[in-house]
Amino acid sequence: MDKKGILRDLSASDLREELLNRLRDQIRRNEEENESLRDQIRQLTPDQKAISGAPIRAGRSRTLARNEQPLREVIAHVLREAGEPLRVKEVLARVRAAGYQSKASNFAGIVNISLSTNQELFEKVDRGLYKLRDSIPEEVAAVM
To answer: Residue 68: which residues within 8 A CB-CB, separation 6 or more?
Structure first.
């Protein structure tokens, strides 16, 4: 008797169990293949990275610049030191002078977004002019 004949004679619960077993087997095979691929990735030399299956040469890193503090904390420090409202360009210059590094081509936009979205920290005084809020909520101050 062929396989189709066997499946035709099974009850609904037996058929369901057979399908579940087949799915479990397929999942097991997929997990084994995934582990094999992970091993291959681990064995890549340090100057290679796997992106979409193709290695790229060293020196073309897509990693972010590492900074000791998050951008919003550096901006808060800059505004605290200034003691007066600053324009976005001045905040940007002082953030860079403070040593904050970014590889972003639109870093001024990122600073502007940080100023406008962290309203619990920064107050918009006028268009493009921001200052540190006089009272910062305790939960925000605790993480700074």
So the answer is: none
In tens, the pLDDT along 63-103 reads: 677 888 899 999 999 999 999 999 999 999 999 999 999 88
Domain boundaries, the chain: 3-56, 71-143
Residue pair 126/142 in contact by the 8 Å Cβ criterion: no
Q: What is the CATH number of domain 71-143?
A: 1.10.10.10
- Assess contact for 86 and 131: CB atoms under 8 A: yes
C-alpha distance from residue 74 to each of 14, 68, 71, 94, 132 (Å): 64, 9, 5, 9, 12
71 Cβ partners below 8 Å, 6+ apart?
95, 100, 102, 110, 111, 114
Q: Who contacts 118 (Cβ-Cβ below 8 Å, separation ≥6)?
A: 72, 75
* Residue 74: Cβ-neighbour burial (10 angstroms; 0-12, 13-18, 19+): buried
CA-wise closest residue to 65 among 107, 30, 97, 26: 107
How far apart CA 123 and CA 134 sit, in angstroms, is: 9
Residue 46 gets which letter from DSSP? T
